[in-house]
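Student: Send me a single protein entry containing the residue sequence and its fold in token form, directly below this note:

Tutor:
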Amino acid sequence: MFRLLLVSLFAVVLTTEAVAQNAMRADSVFARARRLVNEGAGTEGRALIDSLVRSTKEGSAERADALYWRAALAPDAATAQRDYVLITVDHSLTPRAADALLGLAQLEYARGDRTAARRHLERLVLEHPQATSITEAWYWLGRTRIEIGDVAAGCQALDRARKALPAAEVERRNMVDYAAQSCRNLPAAGTTPPPPPPTTTTATTTATRGAWTVQVAAFKTKAEGERLVRSLTARGHAARVIEPFGAGATLYRVRIGFYATRADAVAVVATLKAQRIGAIVAETEAR
């Protein structure tokens, strides 16, 4: 009996190690594919993700992860939408289902369909209240509701987002407060008015004096940079494309914001990392 227990325990350990090793290999493929896409080798990067999708079991969390990254690195919105929908339908019980709903909402928002975006977001907060993306979902739901005229409900959603944010999440709090400006005009019976919009760390107020910025990627062509800027802007980030500068420079850099201190920029990098967006702190380009 004891020997049988040891054999069973050993099998569990081996299975756990195999799962961990597979996850590490998948993460390595994701990182390599993202780097290739960011460097302008989109075809090669997406081929890596395609092979990973084919190698994973249908209905598994691993397949959902692979589909999510294929959507995140997709060359166009229609391709991304197909994979997001697959996740929400065939992998609705995996953690990626919430991320896929958020992705669908942001795609609809970017194309101007606020009603469809709201529908995805309301499903997300209802069905996945513990998701890692729940704070971002409340933010986008609040912003979308306000823009279609449901200000009171939008302010309630933004208040949920604000309460869920850690104090260190300076950039994201700034985004919530900026979206909630109209909430200050609600009657006293409405939601609690948010604090005034920040005046020291946002891109609009520090553009003339911020010494630091955050770099997300660098591309060989301006078109690739502009595509990423559109995606980041749809997610609420003040992104821009920087023309090549410096001796021998050929790359178009995609950057977010202007920040008065390096600590502010570091906080933004941490926020982007939580959203699975790679970024580094850089000195602001000459203007």
